[in-house]
Design brief:
The protein is mainly β. The protein folds into two domains: about 260 residues, 5 Propeller (Tachylectin-2, Chain A); about 100 residues, Immunoglobulins (Immunoglobulin-like, Sandwich).
Length: about 450
């Protein structure tokens, strides 16, 4: 019996080894899937960036050069003489009385100068330590630069979202409330995106560790639709930008033991966010070895460019890191499939677009076209098919009768051809690799 048992030991060990290996493989696959859930659709996550050896020179009105809470706006071709605009706050040795929004400008994003008039939002009560100002965010809308920031009463931690604007980047309006006041722990790190005529405000509830989104038609008040869009451990500072019909976010965590890192998220609708991965951590030694802090980023061609504030003990500075050869989405030829990628969404009596006409009816010749663009289209055009029984693909090679190309967007208003009955509309999508094949949708136009 002893001999038989000893013979079983190698087999048992082999089986145990196999099971452990299989478990590790499953864990690795699940981990990779979590970090890259859209790998099959061509979405690429940025790599872990290399920390900057030295910080940038960032002139501050107090002459310390110590700054945090930055945001960067990039304007191709320049605005008021500069392509890069930065808002930040001086924070020398964590002195919040000097933490007032200030503006720097650059032609390359690396060499920054003070255009004058800093701070652009002075402390409202310079005779005491009652207030501090923090978390500025910047964006350019219709040739007007906006800066949003928090003004907080230290004794009560009551925080108001304020804003200033400028049409030249040098002369700024007086601070005004943007209509939000609450406890600062529940309202941190505002980040504003302007899309399709609306301002979308993101902020962080640091107690619940959640990111919220609101919207406003003016950006100066009447914010509505407060929605939690993301929960993340130690959620702290965020920065959101639109990019190629998607939205990207950088978030820094606030670990109680320091050594906070920077993370990357992406979304197709600003409401559902996916973690792409960690992209920057404190260095082992050096100016950014204690914490990574509020950061900003842009995508310029293949360059994933990040400006990040960081601390060594209580000394903050701003550094720069980039990946020069990164593509958010591996571009493939655009594609379009009838009924799923394109349909007419104006049914009066039936709303299941998969059935189309004759189940989908309308009495209006002006309809809404829904266009789901695969592979990052940049243009689209449409065609009223004379014969609703003909396939849209029969138009291949025939450019006569198509509408003029227009910038891609998920929906468009379109006028059907005269007369009642079943109508078919065709579309084609374009990206840098050319035009897609034709696809179509149908609707019945009733008297």
């Amino acid at each position: 019996m002893r001999k038989a048992a000893s013979n079983l030991i190698p087999h048992f060990s082999l089986l145990l080894f196999f099971c452990i290996s299989l478990l590790i493989a499953v864990i690795v696959v699940q981990y990779r899937t979590y970090l890259s859930p859209h790998a099959s659709t061509g979405i690429n996550n940025p790599p872990l960036l290399q920390n900057a050896i030295n910080y940038l020179t960032t002139p501050t009105y107090d002459n310390s050069g110590q700054a945090v809470h930055l945001d960067v706006v990039y304007i191709p071709g320049g605005w008021q003489g500069y392509s890069y605009w930065m808002v930040m706050t001086p924070y020398p040795y964590s002195n919040d009385q000097l933490e007032n929004p200030s503006v720097l400008v650059s032609t390359n994003g690396l060499n920054w100068t003070d255009p004058g008039h800093n701070p652009v939002a002075p402390n409202p009560n310079t005779s005491s330590t009652a207030y501090f100002q923090s978390d500025p965010d910047m964006l350019l809308v219709n040739n007007r630069m906006y800066i949003y920031y928090r003004t907080s009463i230290k004794s009560s931690n009551q925080t108001t979202l304020n804003y200033i604007t400028s049409v030249d980047g040098r002369n700024w309006t007086a601070p005004q409330s943007a209509g939000i006041t609450q406890n600062g722990n529940y309202f941190a790190s505002p980040s504003v995106v302007y899309q399709n005529g609306f301002f979308y405000l993101f902020y962080v509830d640091t107690i619940a560790q959640t990111v919220h989104r609101l919207s406003s038609a003016t950006g100066t008040g009447n914010w509505a639709g407060d929605t939690v869009v993301l929960s993340f451990p130690y959620a702290w500072h965020v920065n959101i930008i639109p990019y190629q019909n998607h939205y990207l976010m950088l978030m820094v965590e606030k670990k109680p033991t320091n050594k906070s890192s920077l993370y990357y998220f992406y979304s197709e609708n600003m409401l559902n966010w996916t973690l792409g991965g960690q992209i920057l951590s404190p260095s082992a030694t050096g100016w950014d070895s204690t914490n990574i802090y509020r950061s900003a980023f842009i995508i310029d061609g293949t360059r994933f460019r990040v400006w990040y504030s960081a601390f060594f003990n209580n000394i903050p500075h701003i550094g720069y890191a980039e990946d020069p050869n990164w593509s958010y989405i591996t571009i493939s030829a655009p594609s379009c499939n009838s009924w799923t990628d394109f349909y007419i969404n104006s049914c009066d009596s039936f709303t299941d677009f998969n059935n189309n006409a004759p189940n989908c009816n309308t009495r209006s010749a002006v309809v809404t076209l829904h266009v789901y663009g695969l592979n990052v289209p940049t243009k689209m055009k449409f065609y009223n098919m004379p014969d609703p029984n003909a396939y849209c693909t029969s138009l291949s090679g025939n450019e006569s009768g198509w509408s003029s190309p227009q910038p891609y967007r998920p929906s468009a208003t379109w006028t059907l051809s005269p007369g009642t009955g079943i109508k078919k509309v065709c579309t084609k999508l374009y990206n840098s690799l050319g035009w897609s094949w034709e696809c179509g949708g149908e609707i019945r136009l009733n008297p």
